[in-house]
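Section: Multi-chain targets

For targets with more than one molecule, the full set of components is provided together so that the structure can be written out for the assembly as a whole rather than chain by chain. Components appear in the order listed by the source. The example entry contains two components.
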Amino acid sequence: MIREALEKLEFYCAIDFFLNETAHYADIALAGSLHEEEEGTVTTAEGRVTRIRQAVTPPGEARTDTEILLELARRLGAEKYFSFGGAEDIFNELRVASKGGTADYFGITYEKIEKNMGVFWPCPSLDHPGTPRLWEDRKFKTADGKAHFNAVSYRDPGEVTDADYPVILTTGRVVSQYLSGTQTRRIGRLVDQYPEPLLEIHPKLAAQYGITDRELVRVVSRRASAEFPAQLVETIREDTVFVPYHWAGKHSINQLTSGHLDPVSKIPEFKVSAVRLEPLRKQSPPPKQNSLQPSGGSPGHPSPKPPPIHELARIPKGPNETT
Amino acid sequence: MLLQFKQEEEFFMDPQRCIGCHACEMACAECETNGQTPMVSVDYVDRYYTPQTSVQICMHCDDPACAKVCPADAIQKDEFGIVHSANTARCISCSNCVYACPFGVPKKAEPLQLMIKCNMCYDRTSAGKKPMCATVCPSGALWYGTREKMRELRPNSTPVNTFRFGKQSVKTKVNIMMPKGSTELIVD
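Its structure, encoded as tokens over all components, is:
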């Protein structure tokens, strides 16, 4: 569905630090920069505004996001509205823009962030210390000033299991990968921790299909199908299988998920789809290792010729890295 | 001030607090003293039954089996109780230490034909700093500091450094956190 939408776009300009799967649809891809190449602030998920400092300059023709946006403004003739000298000037505009809002940055300055090792929003004035924990004053922004629980009644997900698609598919993450994997699938040591998406399945459900550990299983939904090696674990419900979503192309489990949305929040129902399982009766080959790992060693087995010592200190390239 | 090994600070390992984030391995590798090879390992206890992970660093035994079985006398314990990685000039890559260690710590680096293992970040600890893994562990599974502070942080646990393997008892420099009042960990 997303691919169709991307293909329909009249014009799509992507800014990304690697040419990822989405950027392949772009008419123009601008080389952006990584966290380590940027100057500015990052607000963490706990609402703490932290400073980031440029440790290395972006390689080649890559630029920081600030530089890209300022240059775009200049070429579009809107330079006078974007008269920023750098990241701090932009941050100061955010302070003014967010003044009085829920996430109030007005009282946060670069100086305060550095002095206090980060400042939590809301921070409405320069003498305000920031708010590490919200609602400690128990004054909620409701009509009666009290916190409200919003009760909801259960409704079935947009797609429920039936005779044709009898198993619930849920998707999620693994610890060594981050979201689409654009960054983490390039780092050999992280890839080695969990090299490929696996189908987590309860032994009882697996037994119904005669599925064994590492057997390739085709997972079929109303949208698409994909093949994954099975991983038998007792830590999952007997009616549900799990596949992590950090991979693209034919390894992408999101090809299978439904397009139903939560009626209020509009969050997609990626956590619940109906699928059927087709065991392929062949074992998946073991994934290849990217980084050099020491082994337990064995005196009886000859080892490959040792490389020079500096070879050991080199970061191995991930499977998607281009040179 | 002369930077030196802080003898009042100790390593406390609490494997049940391990959340499997592998931050210790990454920090160990990124330090580059070991040529980007992590000297600490995180593994699932048994992924079939549980998502619980566990972590293992070198326990730095009082009477290290790895050193005792080394035919080349390549493994040495120093005055602070740190059992060092094999001396590269002496190690003959026989793997005796790999098989002898009761905790499964030393590994043979095949490309180098050498045994390498955790030396409690000797380059850091000998200058009064904490080992890399303990500085990044978000859950306190790996913790380095004074015994007094540890008692304050974990009042319901007791650090134990005696391990019993059958009839053999092994004493280590590194402590493992056990239920309050424990005196030894019986491994088998």
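The radius of gyration of chain A is 25 Å.
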